[in-house]
Amino acid sequence: xxxxxxxxxxxxxxxxxxxxxxxxxxxxxxxxxxxxxxxxxxxxxxxxxxxxxxxxxxxxxxxxxxxxxxxxxxxxxxxxxxxxxxxxxxxxxxxxxxxxxxxxxxxxxxxxxxxxxxxxxxxxxxxxxxxxxxxxxxxxxxxxxxxxxxxxxxxxxxxxxxxxxxxxxxxxxxxxxxxxxxxxxxxxxxxxxxxxxxxxxxxxxxxxxxxxxxxxxxxxxxxxxxxxxxxxxxxxxxxxxxxxxxxxxxxxxxxxxxxxxxxxxxxxxxxxxxxxxxxxxxxxxxxxxxxxxxxxxxxxxxxxxxxxxxxxxxxxxxxxxxxxxxxxxxxxxxxx
Length: 336
Hints:
Strand content: 15-25%
Order of helices and strands: EHEHEEHEHHHEEEHEHEHHHEHEH
CATH topology: TIM Barrel
Distance between the termini: 8 Å
Oligomer: single chain
């Protein structure tokens, strides 16, 4: 099992760079930077600064989306980043949520399988120095690209149709479905079906889960800290239906979710998340509790990496650096 970190860029770029340097020193494999442009610092500026300040850790967006950046812009940006940190660059792509909502779009408008498939195939073709056809009907390619770039593309999904598409088109997949083993297996069934349709096996893919994480000596503070991130996850479908008793809570979260508080630990919508949904979706609590939850995830052998995503710091909440350090020392080091 590999462990990665996910970072919401709400702090100054210089602070984020130091956090990625810390993650590198603690042994995390990859740092994924979120792409919510009206809430976070600019993705490619942040990734470039991190690339120049590190030497080992892999770097990439998690996730970048088609409705805020043209596919050709994304391909040119990731290929340029690979010139700076060759062999350390990955790209997570998806249909997104928070970026769309801050622009007045709904998830129903943007969460389309065809969007994910076109983004993955178009970015891959451009990185291979092959042309793509634009909406206008014209063809275009990255003429500056001197040779093809081999950059792994991770396709992200939550619901059955998107997970199946991710397994079909991705080099890797990022499942945002929670941390309970039975739901992880249901998600993997969808990914595996997509992989088979493309003549692959799920073992051919690098399978990651995106896991909201909060770890601390104060159990209640740690769990409260992660609720906003759980609320974000609940906006999306799961590979299995929510239980009857959970549907009302989930619908209320979706109705009252404030995308402009997407990266804020103190988001008001966190108060709508009941305790058992924290357990369903997150790694949260004391180091001992989080360690046991990680061991449960590890009972699903097809999962290759966990991307731990602590909520961004806020007044009265635990600093991101503390999460990274305590998780590395009290969880990663003891489950390896």
